[in-house]
Specification:
Reversible hydration of carbon dioxide. The chain is α/β, with parallel strands linked by helices. It has helices spanning 2-29, 47-50, 77-88, 103-109, 118-123, 128-137, 144-163, 167-174, 227-232; strands at 35-40, 58-63, 93-99, 179-185, 192-196, 201-204. It has two domains: 1-30, no CATH class; 31-232, Carbonic anhydrase (Beta-carbonic Anhydrase, Chain A). It binds zinc ion (ZN).
Length: 233
């Protein structure tokens, strides 16, 4: 803990004074972050560092396995963070960011590791579809390390699907007011792979190229088709 205390002291004495005007403005005017990022709680995955974001720029929700439980009436921390970001803050981009060497994904692949952690085991059921996809649809011969990486990538897509079950997100997608992004951070290389929904794969970003997105909004028709119109087609 000594290092953390030194960090607080250094922030207060050296970092904050250089940015005090920004902090004062944020305190006075409130936050207006440009995106909501749902990432793993892993200490090696630092959303603000990866994106080089400053105070007030990124609304972050972190948990084991960067999971978004499907919408349900029972209250939950992740659901509340999503609703607040979308409805109150008007965030227009939501990123689900997975990563390499994820302990949660290792647990999914090796359930015996989860035996002493019943809460983690129950939480990871929200990722079980990712595990099933890799077990059933990927080659059976892939090595354990690659299997865990594949599960982590598929998990990003499963959580994006879950995001769409949240009424606040579904409504904004239908008004074309929100875009969903799937990212994957490689700890070893520092690369961030981005899911391209059109190509259905993770790709490396190239500077100057438009950012691929996973799910774009759509414009719903302003007039509900009548039964007669549907029959005529
Ligand atoms: Zn993780």
């Amino acid at each position: 803990m000594g290092d953390l205390l030194k960090g607080i002291s250094s922030f207060r004495g050296a970092v904050f004074p250089d940015n005090s005007a920004l902090y004062e403005k944020l305190a006075r005017e409130g936050q207006s972050p440009q995106a909501l990022m749902i990432s793993c709680a892993d200490s090696r995955v630092m959303p603000e560092t990866i994106t080089q974001s400053g105070p007030g720029e990124l609304f972050v929700c972190r948990n084991a396995g960067n999971i978004v439980p499907p919408f349900q009436t029972m209250n939950g921390g992740v659901s509340s963070a999503i609703e607040y970001a979308v409805v109150a803050l008007g965030v227009r981009d939501i990123i689900v960011c997975g990563h390499s060497d994820c302990g949660a994904m290792k647990g999914l692949c090796h359930p015996e590791l989860l035996e002493p952690m019943p809460n983690v085991a129950a939480w990871l059921k929200h990722s079980h579809a990712a595990y099933s996809i890799v077990c059933e649809a990927y080659p059976k011969t892939i090595e354990d390390r690659d299997r865990i990486r594949a599960v982590a990538m598929e998990n990003v897509l499963v959580q994006l699907d879950h995001l769409r079950t949240h009424p606040s997100v579904a409504a904004k997608l239908a008004r074309n007011e929100v875009t969903l992004h799937g990212w994957f951070f490689d700890i070893e290389t520092g690369n961030v792979l981005i899911y391209d929904g059109t190509a259905s794969r993770f790709i490396e970003i190239e500077e100057g190229h438009p950012l691929p997105v996973a799910v774009t909004g759509r414009e719903v028709p302003h007039v509900v088709p009548t039964l007669a119109a549907i029959t005529a087609e």
